[in-house]
Design a protein that fits this description.
By secondary structure, the protein is mostly beta strands. It is built from no helices and three strands. Strand 1 and strand 2 form a beta hairpin. It has a three-stranded antiparallel beta sheet with strand order 1-2-3, with no helix packed on it.
Length: about 80
């Protein structure tokens, strides 16, 4: 039996974020099975958060984070 999959695409085009800018989207429900992301960015800082999502809204439980730390990408 083939498992049903829901595919949702989100395209966001934003010209620039400053140090205090952010965007919020609904949680990635069901992402524990499969997540595919395509992110393009041009950082203006050596440190920052690109993506942060958690199992729960208060970020307890499992989480996924994509960061820039001292100029290098880190995936948690």
């Amino acid at each position: 039996m083939e498992e049903a999959r829901e595919l949702r695409y989100l395209k966001v085009t934003v010209p620039r974020f400053t140090k205090h800018s952010w965007m919020a989207f609904p949680a990635f429900r069901g992402a524990y099975k499969h997540v595919q992301l395509h992110i393009e960015f041009r950082p203006e800082s050596f440190d920052g958060i690109i993506l942060l999502t958690g199992e729960r809204d208060d970020l307890t439980g499992d989480f996924m984070a994509l960061l820039i730390h001292q100029g290098f990408i880190e995936f948690w």
